[in-house]
Amino acid sequence: MTTATVKTFNDVIRERHSVRKYDPAFKISRDEIEDILNDAILAPSSSNLQPWRFIVIDDQDTKKELRLIANNQEQVETSSAVIAVLGDKEMYKNVEKVYKSNYEDGHMDEATMKLMIENSNRLYSNLPEDIRKIIAAFDTGLISMQLMLAAKAKGYDTVPMGGFNKQQFIEKFQVSDRYMPMLLIALGKATAPAHKTTRIPLKDIIEFI
C-alpha cells in the first residue's frame, strides 16, 4: 500500500488536473480504491437518497474491451482502474434503507423516520422518470467530483470521461434498466503532467446582490 502525502485542501484542488497519461505498471489496491470511494460517498444528494452505484474495472483484459467502448481512449487501458459511476433512476427504493440507518444511528427519532419515509416515497415514486434522471445526473456529478478530489488527496490522478457508448456499456456489464451509466473515471499514477488550463476570471462570473 502506498503511503499518501498529507495535503491541505488548497493543495488538492489546485493540483488536481485531468490526466490522460498513466503508468500501466502502477497498480492501486482494491482496499485503497474502497478507501477513496468511502470518502466519495460522503457527498450530498437529494433527500440523502444516494442515487449512485459503482462498477470498478481493474482487470487488464476487461479494460482493453472497455477501451473500445470508450472511443479508444488510451487512459482506459493504462490507468490502474476505471470507475464507472451509475445513476439510480429509482432512488426512492433506497428510502427505507437510508432513513432506517439514520434512525438506528440516532440521527433522528422514530416519528421523523416514518414521516421522511412516507414523504420521500410519495414524492419520488410519483415524479416522471425524466425528472428522476435529472436528479440522479446532478447527484452523480457531486459524487464524481468528490471522488476525484479524494483520489488526489491520496496522491493519485484521475480523468472523467463522458465520451463512451453507453448502450454498449450496458450490454457488456449487464447493467439493470434501473441504472444509467453516467461517467467513467480513470484512476492511476500520471507519467506526464496534465495540460494546464485557465479559468474565466471570477469577476466575470460573479454578482453580489
Automatic annotation (TrEMBL):
The record's listing under Pfam families reads: Nitroreductase
> What is this protein identified as?
NAD(P)H nitroreductase
Q: Which organism is it from?
A: Neobacillus kokaensis
Please tell me whether the keyword Calcium is annotated for this protein: no
Q: Which family does it belong to?
A: Belongs to the nitroreductase family.
Per UniProt, which keywords does this protein have? Oxidoreductase
Q: Which InterPro entries match?
A: Nitroreductase, Nitroreductase-like
All residue ranges annotated as the Nitroreductase domain in the record: 13-189
